[in-house]
Automatic annotation (TrEMBL):
This is Cytochrome c oxidase subunit 7A2, mitochondrial. Belongs to the cytochrome c oxidase VIIa family. The chain crosses the membrane at residues 53-74. It comes from Coregonus suidteri. Its main location: mitochondrion.
Amino acid sequence: MYKQLMSLQQLSRRTISSSARRQVDNMVKEKQKLFQADNGIPVHLKGGAKDAILYRLTMALTVFGSGFVLYELLSAAMPKKA
């Protein structure tokens, strides 16, 4: 029983330590070149399609929220007569 426990402990230690050693490529220089390029694209859209989708979603939510606030303000300013 003790040997099984020790082998299980070694196995778990090995998998945890080996998974933590994965090499991650340093992409900072490439990202700096991408975002500093003078190509006429605003910096908040230089990340690609994902940035464009997030930008459009944010703008749509902003417009919808502003319209809803105005609607609620108008409905509060003009109460319905009973």
